[in-house]
Amino acid sequence: MPSSLISAAFVAAMVGYGASVAIVLAAAQALGASPVEAASWLAAVSIAKGLGMALLSIWTRVPVVLAWSTPGAALIATTAGISMPQAVGAFIFTAVLLVLTALLPPVRRAVSAIPDGVAGAMLAGVLLPFCIAAAAYAGTDPIFALPIIVAFFLVRLVNPLMAAIAALILGLALGFALTDAQWPDAAIPLNPFVFIPPELSASVLIGLGLPLYLVTMASQNLPGFAVLRANGYTPPVPQALAVTGIGSGLSALFGAHTHCMAAITASLCIGDDVHPDRDQRWKVGVIQGVIWVGLGFLGPFITQVILVLPTSIIGTVAGLALISPFLGAVQTAFQPEATRFAAAVTLITTASGVAIFGIGAAFWGLVAGIVVALADTQLRHP
Q1: For residue 41, which of 9, 50, 301, 305 sits 20 to 30 Å off, Cα-Cα?
Q2: Three-state DSSP class for 245?
Q3: Measured between alpha carbons, how far is 192 from 220 in angstroms, rounded to an integer?
């Protein structure tokens, strides 16, 4: 087996994990998860997507690369007043919607009917508070935030993919050097999972579960399929949605949020430099799947390391890591001229954090944007 397959899989896994693990743990903290529940979350989502990408790559002979939903984790982290059992119920609801999308073409058409600008604006509105928080920490906790920000932008000049990882490494170094944080016990449990019984709440299903599904579809699944198509592969859309939906539903019982198709890390795994024979590149999905399963069992240890750090470190690293996704979402939001005003309404409403009837701002931003877009189309331009 060519070493290029192994190196591509390893680099993609390290980039995917290191660049966004702080965001996942910030989401767990927002839901009031205990350290044990947060460790279970990280382990379950890592192992589920590792097994999923190995299965899909073997099944379809396509280099399928999966990722946890980073924008989805950001969405979760902006919620308030939701318990872990309620969130698990919403995660399962999202998984059911993914499976229905795989099985029912009308559902796929309905999702595709949402204007790209409105969907992008909802994602931008979810990510914006995180990016602002990173800048705010520079003023409230500069001893940690400023060096991390400087390191991020310096590394970005050389290697943008490694910038968030460099910020995380420096944050760890500062946290353990300048605080009383203690390096945790290196013991790794053989069973990192904690079962969390789901609790179904209509407001949480609508306010969290539905936006989580839409953000995952619009910001990761669709671009992930597009990356495969751009590299000459036929995306296994129904199979991928079914496997990630079922896997997300099962892993949700242990606290994990949704996993889905990858776009950025997928681009690292399907080029000519990975394997000269494009029909053999599917093996990179299997190798990366094995790596992710290993990372999953390291989840409890990694969780202990990160959660003992000051909130300002986690918040700064998370906000910096989300600048590029925010930029992409803004570009998507305001590129179509016909829906620019609707996109602005969506972004503002979502970023406001408004909650009505217990339903979060992401849902209301989406509703407001669709209503304005329809009004502009039907009333102003009949």
Answers
A1: 9
A2: helix
A3: 27
φ, ψ at 64 (rounded to 5°): -85, 125
- 32-55 pLDDT tens trace: 999 999 999 999 999 999 999 999
Sign of CA dihedral 110, 367, 75, 41: negative
Helix, coil or strand: residue 260: strand
Looking at per-residue pLDDT, the higher value among 81 and 84 belongs to: 84
Question: For residues 257 and 212, what is the distance between their CA atoms, to the nearest angstrom?
Answer: 9
- Which one-letter amino acid corresponds to residue 260? C
Cβ contacts of 1 within 8 Å, gap of 6 or more: 283
Where exactly are the structural domains of the chain? 3-326
CA distances from 175 to 73, 143, 155, 182 (A): 23, 10, 20, 10
**Most distant CA atoms of the chain, gap in Å:** 66
CA 18 from chain center: how many Å? 12
* DSSP single-letter state for residue 105: H
User: What is the distance, to the nearest Å, from the Cα of residue 98 to the centroid of all Cα atoms in its chain?
Assistant: 15
| Pairing assessment for the beta strands 66-68 and 259-261 based on DSSP bridges | antiparallel
For residues 250, 253, 254, 257, the Cα torsion angle rounded to the nearest 10 degrees is 70
Q: Give me the amino acid identity at 58.
A: I
Query: pLDDT, tens digit, for every residue of 183-205?
Result: 877 667 778 899 999 999 999 99
195 vs 191, 200, 247, 266, 334, CA distance in Å? 11, 16, 15, 31, 42
Half-sphere exposure of 154 (CA within 13 A, CB side): 9
Confirm if 47 and 292 have CB atoms less than 8 A apart: yes
| CA torsion, ordered 268, 315, 216, 44, to nearest 10 deg | 80
Phi, psi of 62 (to 5 degrees): -120, 140
Tokens describing residue 140: 């409230």
